[in-house]
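Good morning C.,

I know you're traveling, so I'll keep this short. The sequence:
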Amino acid sequence: MKKNRKLIEQAKNLSSSDLYHIIQSSNNPLSNKYQIEFYHAIHLSNEYKKQIVDLFENNMKDFYEQSNDGYNSIDKRNELFSNQSRYLIILVENVIIAFVHFRFDMDYGNRVLYLYELQINMKYQGQGLGKWIIEQLKLICQKTQMMKIVLTVHKINQKAIDFYMKKCLFQLDFTNPNDEDVDYFILSFTV
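The tokens, ready to paste straight into the viewer:
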């Protein structure tokens, strides 16, 4: 357990520059038309925070409103901008067109990269950005010695379920609740 905590702390202490260098070693670079940046949530500008919330709400607010828990904008902002939150952001001309919000954490005894949000502007969906982002997260997991990527997805979001399970090879995690009243799945990819 001590080793797990140490590895989690090491991952949490990586700078944005360290994370950027990890993905630079990828054999799958992103097109030069995109700008890639990493941030701790506490270092995001107010403008970037606004763009993140806008993109999230455009893509997800309806799903949350239909869920058992509903949508609480204050709770969501607190989650998005927690001091533990990390971001990989893709921009075109200083406008965020995609982002992934993640954290390094322990989950049921496993070292995990927990993927909270992966959001892509609708105009840029279907162009491989989501798959590229997931590949970068897998690379970050390998380099930081995380055991898997874990995420939660609404059961009514079939497009996201298909993306994660068919294109990115995620599976139902052993922590996925068997309760039919639960309106989400917990998926994971073991690195």
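Safe travels,
E.
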